[in-house]
Amino acid sequence: MYKIDIFTALKELELSEKSRGLTQGTIKRNQGFVGRFLKHTYSNFNINYVDEIQLNHVKSFLVYVFEQGNKAAYVNTYRKAISAYFNYIEGEEYIQYYKNPMLRVPKMKEPEVLVFAWSDDDIKKIKSKQLAGI
Known about the structure:
Low-confidence stretches: none
Oligomer: single chain
InterPro entries: CB, DNA_brk_join_enz, Integrase_recombinase_N
Protein name: Core-binding (CB) domain-containing protein
Domain Core-binding (CB): 1-90
Organism: Candidatus Enterococcus lowellii
Helix content: 55-70%
CATH architecture: Orthogonal Bundle
Order of helices and strands: HHHHH
Keywords: DNA-binding
Largest sheet: none
Mean pLDDT: 92
CATH superfamily: Tyrosine recombinase, N-terminal domain
């Protein structure tokens, strides 16, 4: 295994995403999300190399994002970008499969969105009111 700096790996990921033909917007978004995670990890845990990042570092960051008032769906977007980062690192063999912390980071539960369904009678009432108003 080759030891690689966390920010060097982020630059490599950007090159990989460009070579795969991802849109500039997707690349910029992923770089932003992962960059914020790495800055948090570096400043709070003094992590320099990708093989030093552990499960608790990732969970700590995701909880931090959630506690800033963000919704679960937004936190899951961070999770997805961070997961792509670690999948890249694993694919390049900078870490071994079993050391990928994202394997044990579950998605945050998102609230269910209930959709109100109109009955046939409701639709008839609405139509009759519209016709009466013409």
